Protein 1
Amino acid sequence: MPDLILEHEEIVEQSTTRTYYTRFSLGQRYLHGVVMATFLGLALTGMVLRFSRSGWGSSFAGVVGGFGAILFFHKFCAVILSAAFLVHLGDVLHRGLIQRDKGTFWGPNSMVPNLKDLKDLYGHLRWFFWRGPQPKFEHFAYWEKFDYWAVFWGMGIIGFSGYIMWFSTLFAKVLPGSWLNIALLIHGEEALLAVWFIFAIHFFNTHLRPGSFPMDLVIFTGSENDAEMKEKRSGEYQRLAGADQLEARKTFAPTRWLKNFGRTMGAAVIVIGFVLLWLTVASFVKGQ
Amino acid sequence: MLHVAAALLLALGTAGGAAAGASKGVDCLSCHADQSLTDQAGHSVYVDQAKHKASVHGSLSCTDCHSDISDYPHPEKLSQVACETCHSSEAGDVDASMHKKAASPSCLACHNSPHEIVPVSDPRSPVYQLNVPRTCGTCHGNQDFAKQHGLANVYQGYMDSIHGFALNKSGLLVAASCVSCHGSHKILSHKDPQSRTYRTNIPNTCGSCHAGTKAEYFAGIHGRKLNAGDTKAPVCIDCHTAHQISRAENVAWQAKTPATCGSCHKKQLSTYSDSFHAQVSALGYVEVARCGNCHRNHEILPASDPKSSVAPANLVATCSHCHAGANASFVSYRPHADTRDMKSFPALYFSARFMNLLLGGVLSFFGLHTILWFIRSVVHQAGNHASVDTNA
């Protein structure tokens, strides 16, 4: 059977002669990979503490080697994620402020929200109710920008409150100790929001919605074909085509191993994420 | 030696004038030394002379106890031996005890075979310290018996406790056995104000061994309240249980202490539960502060008392046990902050409400957005089926 599938896929790829366009650079894909892996580690170890009165919490703690192991793993992931955050911040500032790349802070490839995003949100909502056409989304749609800024803000808030608690006696030398109460509250609530948002809304918007189901591999492969691009980002496609810039974005079709790697990683993360989503929602409803 | 010699002579059938001046016991043994001797009901009436001689009653003659015998042959049926003739004080105690009111066991139920009673200090005695739990357990460890008499079946709980472990596994004579707390002859109901196990007497009963802890307890608010006549003030057994007392170092027991204190201090337990301390201890790990780490275990005092471990002036020292380098600013952290109390914790209260709004707002908006998008996309896909091969 594997031979049959192999032949079938090759035939499909040759016969359709899809053109592939770069969406994410290798750096962006690595960044997402690091954020994904460390977020998963932080979410698992953090939610165990957030819902420590649930049965699954103490079971998980026992399996991984106790509270010391949980805290170590949580801090380990936190340090890597913080480093990735700083590298990204440095990269953005370098591109925007030193290289004077105006596209960093403004324009279609920028993460900065603009008026079109508001219009797209309005248009999208109208489309949900059959009141208008599907908006022509650009390189980053409004919900993708929201995902980005949610993570950006989340990392700032959760990270800062986390480091306050990690180095609590040190922070108390400059800040009042009562901030520690607020730090734990915000750390836990913002983390719960992040976990639920990523494992429910980000998963759906990006991977599980009809059109992407069961998984959008673009974050792993870095490229998408012309049909996908026309369907999902017709605004960007038309702009690039009109300006004769499509050619510059052209790339090779993703290799089989890369797609399989993406499928394996993505499926594993989605399954773990759903399990954690289900456990945390159930515990939250039970008031644990 | 005279007794032994006389008995030997008799056994050899050479009685003669040797009986003159000898006790009546010598005569009795001419029959009762026979191992096969039984009464009409078939019960053995054999007396092991050697064991009797070695017993605490070895110097007594048979008729000292069996006082209704004056002649031979004696009646087939004798009246019961009255231990109280000599042991009047103990008999009086037993008469006043629960045992008299309940099943009324005889002295022998605990002191064993009548002719072989050895001193309590003798390891063969059933009431020797190390043997006491098993002796009491013959009745109190019997589930059916306990049920019949409305008794809590505490035997197994005791045996698994730190006291039972020390006594049975380590053979520690100073470990508490049943009689250490309940007394031996005058065992009273725990509802009787005279009882050693009556609520308000318990700190003194436990304190007869745990003198240091007793002093700490009475210096603390619980002991002070008890002394002031508050019968609801917690005593030793309220936190440690009466029989299943665990080692204080036991991790599983330590992890349960917040729930134990919280059975009275409900609000404090609820606010503690919001803290990182509680999250870790709820997972079953004790590297973090539980009630006693801050409030002490026995000398617990309200924060208003300058001697309290949580008095404002002592907080830095108390928190520094774990948080090395804690300063006055650090201890303004509130381990019992209440996110629902706007007056006492306004910043925390409004932070919590803001986070509620943020979570509720973001998740409702995007949740609805997602549901609507899903419905619309399914319809869109159905109509737009042929064109896109999204995952190729």
Protein 2
Amino acid sequence: MAEAAANFGGSTQRRGWLNKRLMDHLDALEAQSVYILREAFNKLDPLGLLWSLGKDSNVMVWLCRKAFFGRVPFPALFCDTGKKFPEMYAFRDRYAAEWGLNLNQEPCPPVEEMDPTLPPAARSSARKTYALKNLVQRLKLKAVIAGIRRDEDATRAKERYFSPRGENAEWDVREQPPELWDQFKTEFAPGTHIRVHPLLHWTELDVWRYIRREKIPVVELYFAKGGKRYRSLGDQDITHPMTSNASNLDEIIAELEATRTPERAGRAMDHEAEDSFERLRVAGYM
Amino acid sequence: MAEPTSPLRVALAGHVDHGKSTLVGRLVHDTGSLPEGKLEAIRASSAKRGMPFEWAFLLDAFQAERDQGITIDTTQVWLKTKKRGYTLVDAPGHKEFLRNMVTGAAAADGALLVVDAKEGVREQSRRHAFLLGLLGLTQIVVAVNKMDLVGYDRARFTEVAHAIEAYLGSLGIAPKAVIPVSGREGDNIVGRSEAMVWYRGPTLVETIDGFQPLPSPVDQPLRFPIQDVYKFDERRIIAGRIESGRLKVGDTLAFAPGGRKARIASIEAWPENAKPSEAEAGRSIGVTLDDQIFVERGQIGHHEGSAPAETNSLRVRIVWLGREPLLRGKRYKLKLATAEHQVEVQTIERVIDTADLASRSAEAVVAGDIAEIVLRTRATLAVDDSKVLPRTGRFVLVDAYDVAGGGTVALDSHARVRREGIKSTNIKREEGRVALAERWQANGHKSGILWLTGLSGAGKSTLAVELEQHLFRKGWHVTVLDGDNIRHGLSADLGFSPEDRTENIRRIGEVAALFARAGMIVITAFISPYREDRDGARKIAPELFHEIHVKADLATCEQRDPKGHYKKARAGLIPEFTGISAPYEAPASPELVVDTAANSLEACLGQLTAYVERTLGS
């Protein structure tokens, strides 16, 4: 982790609030996410936070600590596919302890039990949906916080901050609730489960700029080694690195400012069929 | 390196099939904002369905959207011009997807309204334009689209442009530009159109580049709605987002409704070394107070002297999105900032036809309707006029489990609403199984309302307290409602304007009637200067009501002046003081007149007790 830590000494110093009159873009994103997290904590009990070890979910942990003054006052949830990179497991062990997370883990069921009509990579990804459902049942969770963003994928672009799901976590895209003026859906029929998406309005660049400003630790696989780096982290067998020489935060940000390649280009399950990711998500994937 | 500014949010609106999605696709493509591989994916999706290249597939993420060629839900796409970044929020034009349009447009800085050159201004063009206005969006550009289908005809453009400008004008909106475009061909979107050299105005991109981000309301009065109160450790942190204005450590905050006050001891933050000493609109913060006053979620922190209004009735303009119609007399949950209130629809004043802005009266408001209604809340609500402080002047209504409508508050006329009184027709008084006569028999006396009215200083309170003690010692069930205990609690939200006095008396009348129907004798001691108000109180329980005029002339009362009020009123320190600067309307035919100027206290009390024992004794 020493190499990764060296990257956090980034070029931009955190400016104190004291001398700053107006909020900047990252302040605005942070304030909106904190507001959403506090709404979820006030209205949805018990609540859990999905922690996938990726950059977005680390930002989410950070925002929780901002919202709740250093704490994450609900369990962190980790769906273990057993196929994550060793660096990710090491990261989990270190920061679960350092951040004081109440970590709840659940092994994913074998791929043979998944919908056989799904393309192979999507079928592999569907395992996580089942582990999450088990966690939700085991901890009797009313709602789960997930770090998805609108700019990741066209179906995620249509999400709400507070997104109701049916008893089997299914997403009814035709009946999404209106969401205006930060008044979220907080009244539910029995059996409804809620996904809360506090990072929905962030972009990939926003996430990296915030990581740089706040010096948030991330898995070192994001930084280039030997001309390759991971832009998005999933299971080893269905996630591919991209060609890149970006070996620190400034270089990653510069790279993303110039690129037109979508973030999830290296995630096989998104590209097998026109609707494979939609099918995953409608069935309860994040 | 400079941190980027927030992207400007532009909502798209317009009638179904007027080509919004195509226009957006073209806009994203021509500005070079399309992600790699997307063009090929759209081409493949189009070919698969045997269609020519379909730009709308950029926005249509769901299989059903691609298959049916319609946009089901709002979506967002990102766009970069030379000037800045944009988030385009596409809102479907179908009537049944209005809630998505509202969802998309509610957070936008500006809007792009698309009108088909061939079809002209249609129902949804008008409805969407009206909603943009209701949502407070006034930065609007109109694209008259599909100019290629009308042969780039200038006369046709002028005709459509005039129609939409006239409609927007009637809403008080002046569009930033009305531009003839072709989404399919790309005319006047990024590049100028060679087919329409007669058009000399700005292109679409030039126009949205001229939009301004919504100004942050930092210089407005402070509104800090409490979102939660945390006690994770020894600190008691009041958490919330500043909706307008600013605050700093040491400021005195008052919390509405209720008015409890305390000073800000600290602004808490994590990491701990980043604790600020001040904060402004937009920030989600947490403060500690120097005094552990009871405050809770929903109350709004503000500075003294610039409080939000506190009221029980609201005149509002709403857009209804619910599956079930909004009905008069029905109860809903109102959510405004972090507050939640049970409200009843008191009246549906009018439903607005967005086609011609005509009004019609209605018993119900159905999905898609825009209406003006009056809501009555049980508890006092802290609220602002949406035109002044939009963030604390707008709300949603929840029907059962669903957000079913949104609206904005117009405060200027709320006093008038109160005067109109309660009009609920669906409330049936619960009779219970214990008859009043049985209560009287059990208590050994009848019950009733002894309504003492008269000038300040006439002796109402003194007589009320003496009479209560006398009757209580006899073993009678009796209580007093007087000005102070009512004004501190039940009517804490009311002042002394004629409207507020009327409402105060109405409430006292209701409470008194409840006591009397429960078998008690209730003595009220209020100036209650207006005949109409006292008659209103009598109407609540006429068979139990006894109007007693505690009579003394103004000179006598002013000489007594037990609380020093007359002196202050003469000095102009108390506005609208009865007898000095506000009228007292003496009862025309009271049940009893007690003249305290002519008789001693003992004599008056004797007269009163004799009357009570005669009329209420068994």
